[in-house]
Amino acid sequence: MKITVLDKGFVELVDVMGNDLSAVRAARVSYDMDVLDEERDKKLIEFLLKNGHETPFEHIVFSFHVKCPIFVARQWFRHRIASYNELSGRYSKLSYEFYFPDPARLKRSNRNFDEKTVLEKIEEVTQTAYRVYLELLKMGIPREVARIVLPLNLYTRFYWTVNARSLMNFLNLRADSHAQWEIQQYALAIAKIFKEKCPWTFEAFLKYAYKGDLLKGVQI
Predict the structure, then answer these.
(1) pTM (whole model) above 0.85
(2) Which strand (E) or helix (H) includes residue 187?
(3) Mean pLDDT throughout 73-94?
């Protein structure tokens, strides 16, 4: 399951361990019970999220492959209850893959300016930085040093392994209008995959535990 995000990015589900019933089993082990029937199992998930009993959801684990601009990744990595492995600019030559916002993104500002001029300036400085990067490499400068001239709109890739409890916390903070618009788009993609793989948990999360605003009243 792979979803395109922004101009060149994506979120791809590469592995998942467990589902809604994994949380049910983890919760019922306290009473030496297993899954019962669909109606009662679904109600248990609702009870857990309504009352803040979230540890059973740690038994559902997702692994994602993410491609996003560096400035998005740095916000993402603040969610520390997870595992990350990122593309290294020290060990690999970085490709010319940069995020360029479209005019609609710029119009989110209340100030008056010419969008075309702004985008031309962003592209100009990006092209200059990448040209200098290549020149430094050609001179024999180590990749780990040459990369320091590259701007934050450079795309990076990483693997993110996270349990459903931490994933829901990510959605609370990033699928919200207070988050930066770019990471909101990635949060919406994560939410779509979460809904697909754990529909009961997703539904109960929105009803009882979701603290953001972007996922309410929208079709994802």
Answers:
(1) yes
(2) helix 181-197
(3) 96
Contact present, 26 and 59 (Cβ < 8 Å): yes
Between CA 115 and CA 122 the distance in angstroms is 11
pLDDT at 33: 75
Task: Please report the DSSP string for 155-166 in residue order.
Answer: EEEEEEEEEHHH
Neighbours of 9 (CB within 10 A): 22
Q: What is the pLDDT of residues 55-77, one digit of tens each?
A: 999 999 999 999 999 999 999 99
Contact 8, 15 (CB under 8 A): no
Rounded to whole angstroms, how far apart are CA atoms 75 and 182?
A: 10
Please, what are the domains in the chain?
2-86+154-209 (3.30.1360.170), 103-149 (no CATH)
CB-CB contact of 90 with 144 (8 Å) = yes
- Cα–Cα distance measured from residue 18 to residue 190, given in angstroms and rounded to the nearest whole number: 16
Structure tokens at 120: 């031309």
Annotated active-site residue 174? The verdict is yes
Q: Cα(218)–Cα(21) distance, rounded to whole angstroms?
A: 26
Q: Which of 25, 28, 108, 174 is catalytic?
A: 174
Residue 100 C-alpha from the chain's centroid: 19
